[in-house]
Amino acid sequence: SLHDVMSGDEWPRSPVVIAPQFVIGRYRLDFLVQVTDSKGGKHSFALECDGADFHSNSEAREKDAKRDDYLRALGVKTLRYSGRTINRLSYKLAHEIAAIVNDYRRAA
Questions:
Q1: Going by C-beta distance under 8 Å and a sequence separation of 6 or more, which residues neighbour residue 20?
Q2: I need a surface site. Which of 54, 58, 81, 104 has the fewest CB within 10 A?
Q3: 15 pairs with which residues across the strands?
Q4: DSSP string, 53-106
Q5: Residues whose CB is less than 8 angstroms from the CB of residue 33 and which lie 6 or more positions away in sequence, other chains included
Q6: Sheet holding 76-82, edge to edge
Q7: How many whole angstroms separate alpha carbon 99 and alpha carbon 45?
């Protein structure tokens, strides 16, 4: 399970851990965020930064959908942001991500 992969001794014990280039199965995530809630439960989501060059055609979108389905089956929600959105709305995205983290922290 995902929790087993992430619960080794080398994994930080912080309530929020952001792991860049985290590998799950055959997929490398841009970022995996794991949040520990107030009762010790683990919640994870992936942050994907999708550049237009790599994610604009139907084949790439189909691969992304399969990847998202795989992650969802492991309990990992995927948030995808375009490079343009990241560059122009980074403040808004930071607040969105912080809100998700805070919701998970309060979950139990």
A1: 30, 31
A2: 58
A3: none
A4: HHHSSHHHHHHHHHHHHHHHHTTEEEEEEEHHHHHHSHHHHHHHHHHHHHHHHH
A5: 16, 17, 18, 19, 44, 45, 46, 47, 97, 101
A6: 16-24, 27-36, 42-50, 76-82
A7: 13
Helix (H) / strand (E) containing 49: strand 42-50
DSSP symbol at 32: E
pLDDT tens, 16-59? 888 999 999 889 999 999 999 988 888 999 999 887 655 567 88
The phi-psi region of residue 94 (left if phi > 0; otherwise alpha if psi is between -120 and 50; otherwise beta) is alpha
- Checking DSSP bridges between strand 76-82 and strand 42-50, what pairing results, if any? parallel
Nearest to 22 by CA among 76, 102, 73: 76
Residue type, 105: R
pTM here? 0.78
**pLDDT per residue as tens digits for the range 71-93:** 999 999 999 988 888 888 888 88
